[in-house]
Amino acid sequence: MMYKALFSLVFAVFSLNSAHAQEADIDETADAVAADFEANMEVVSEAAEAAMEVDPFDPTSNRSPFPKRGFYPTPTPFDYPADSHVNGEEGLVRLTLDIDAEGTVTDCKVSESSGHLALDKASCAVALRDAPEFEPAKDERGNAVASKYELTIDWNIREPELQPMVIDVRLTIGTDGKVSECEALETSGTLFRGFDRTDPCKNMNRSGDIYRDENGQPVAKKVRIRMTVEVDDVPE
To answer: Which residue ranges does the record assign to the TonB C-terminal domain (predicted)?
Structure first.
């Protein structure tokens, strides 16, 4: 947009100078045109330099603090407070970080609670652990100044995918590689993500592989798939 404005201004200058040439003596107008053009180009040049001083896409010239690398603090299973896990507590915590003029995080405060004190307290520990160095904020003269940075921490309980379960399915793979005659003999426990109890053969044999006899000819086969997951305590 800045360059478009500059070209428009230059075009206007040429248009104005052309009008002068039609109203005055050619020699005198030529001198006037040259002088006018030079004067206006100085104005254009000064405007261009001023506009280029701040690049909105350059984080070093941003007036707000800017992390020097990706900053998406995420709690690990080890970060989850034990009591919160037992009580099924989840929620979103909004934090405010203090950033000094060097771009270092110096403090963290909860600006909006999740409604669970334990999660609120644990959030700052996660944010301070993962926090990178920042490009500091700038004042109107371009000097680095202390500032604040806001972010959120999302707490969600995640259980291990391997939970006690049984999947026992019988199906037929035809000579064309398609699955038919699907029958769920047993499905119990906490099943794998993506397993559909209403369509237990969904996504099975997606590659369309076929069985062959000793002569290399496609043959249909009955297939039984049984998966069992058992989870027990480790003896002390």
So the answer is: 65-158
